[in-house]
Amino acid sequence: MCGIVGYIGTQTAVNILIEGLERLEYRGYDSAGIATVTEEKIESVRAKGKLFNLKEKLENHSNFSRLGIGHTRWATHGKPEEHNAHPHLDNQQRIAVVQNGIIENYQTLRDQLKEKGYQFYSETDTEVIPILIADILKDLPGDDPDKALLEAIGKAVHQLEGAFAIAVLDAHCPEQLIVARQQAPLILGFGQGEFFCASDVTALVPHTNTVLSLENGEIARLTPLGVEVYDFQLKRLRKLPRTLDWSATTVEKQGFRHFMLKEIYEQPAVVRTCLATYLNEQWRAADHPSHSPVFLGLDPQLTKNLQHIQILACGTSWHAGLVGKYLLEQLAGIPTTVHYASEFRYAAPPLTPHTLTIGVTQSGETADTLAALEMEKQRRLTLEDDYKPLILGITNRPESTLATMVNEIINTHAGIEIGVAATKTFVAQVLAFYFLALDIAFQRHSLSLEAIEHIMVGLRQLPAQIETILEQQGSAIEALAHEFAETQDFIFLGRGINFPIALEGALKLKEISYIHAEGYPAGEMKHGPIALLDAKVPVVAIAMPGSVHDKVISNAQEAKARDARLIGVTPMDDNQARSVFDDLLLVPHVEEMLSPIVAVIPLQLLAYHIAARRGLDVDQPRNLAKSVTVE
Ligand code: M6R
Fold first, then answer.
1. Is domain 460-631 given the CATH code 3.40.50.10490 in the classification?
2. Does residue 552 have its Cβ closer than 6 Å to ligand 1?
3. At what angle do helices 145-159 and 128-137 cross, to 10 degrees?
4. The pTM is what?
5. Fold observed for domain 3-251
6. What is the pLDDT of residues 233-245, one digit of tens each?
7. What are the φ/ψ torsions at residue 192 (nearest 5 degrees)?
8. Which of 210, 286, 354, 603 shows the greatest Cβ crowding within 10 Å of its Cβ?
9. Residue 460 per-residue DSSP state
């Protein structure tokens, strides 16, 4: 939610800020703005809407400042209008601030500052920050403005409640950029005589691979000479940057029309990477191995004596959690519940002993998920041993806030995902659940060694099977998708392990094409939703081999009898299914237990091609942001 970027160094800041904002635009695109310092003056340019509006405003605008901050906004407080765009300035135009997060007590602060005579020009929560800093600064000695600014920010952050990451400029400090973090991501980048900050490393990788993730309660002072990190009491901290193994091309479209399409096509490689990382190639049932078939390296305490697993997540990650539940129950034999993190926090179920809590979030920054995990951790901390907090994170961003809150993480290794619609990260999350379920199944002997090996053999075939879909079905799915460009409603049906895939297919379509879509367990249609069906509502049914195949086909027939156009996700060799469906999204024949990963691919392509045909901004759908860092 919102992206912030900052630069201090030897190059023209504006270019670096704009390039950084381009790479952060996936975090919000309601407005954008930058501020720079030249000759003891703040120059700020802001524009409503997407970044190109700001770029247009900056054309023929010469600004050679070497210090600046930028922001791309996902509106929370105040409409997406220019006067609400960041940066926000104090009344003297001395302090400029960009913020990602929410200042929960902004109304109180605003009232207090208004009483002191300050004017407000926006409806945002953020505007209180520059005014507050300026108010504190006026009472500090002015002989050393650099020192005073750090001190003022140190005092100001103590008055701010909520989750925030801020970057601050002072017109009187042309050699200093100060940033602070409290529960919203902020990464520092280290170049040669130049330093950067950004909400995500995607904005840093074109310039440097040396980064430092600021932690909660930390302030950093960036100057052309280096970076100093402090805690909120302004005690200096010693921090060591780390090296990223990403290159700038990782965050480019590489010839694809959209990032989402590129990311869909990256899935065979992602699955290969995950298998190579986690699956033990040497493991054979016949050797009666005493070690796990997977290399998760989890602390055995996490899974010992387990009686219950609870999964907390949002959106697509919640769908991955539903597949996870199926695997953990059916393979590892552990009762598992899946909760929307946003609901769990306010109506947590009664505590159960020997419970593993799994937080699933590709970004590792989703506020709802982090808050629910924190709540769960806190309510267990003071209880006896059986209830101790055992928390596992499944994330694509091991450097994220999630990683600092959990006992262990499984890194999903999907590589950066820029498209707002999650695709490859979903597949990687689902794979993480296969590995976890196999690990626990092995430890608890809930599956025979032969059954484990059988699943491992199936997993190894997935990359080639996904490639087959992409190569052989890509054009057919695109052509089919074009027929639905004007459709207004879709129903997606699945059962068992593929019910979450029906939900995911519907979510993908809704979020990028703005077509209303619902996912249902196929057997539930007759209990109400079947009333929705007529010739104008296509039904996509996932009919993969296995225990519910015939049931799904029967449910699909029921829809056909109500004139619905039937589209089947089904194996190439399934003649029964082929004769029932009007249109086919063909996939290779895989066993039921492995079918979600192949079944989701054509649904991603269908959603993508419908949205692209409708001429929509697939990578940045309206009202959404990639990383939802507000509750
Ligand atoms: O980063 P997370 O996995 O925690 O994100 C959760 C959801 O916000 C995310 O999956 C969202 O639903 C996507 N837009 C789905 O494509």
1. yes
2. no
3. 130
4. 0.83
5. Glutamine Phosphoribosylpyrophosphate, subunit 1, domain 1 (3.60.20)
6. 999 999 999 988 7
7. -90, 105
8. 603
9. H
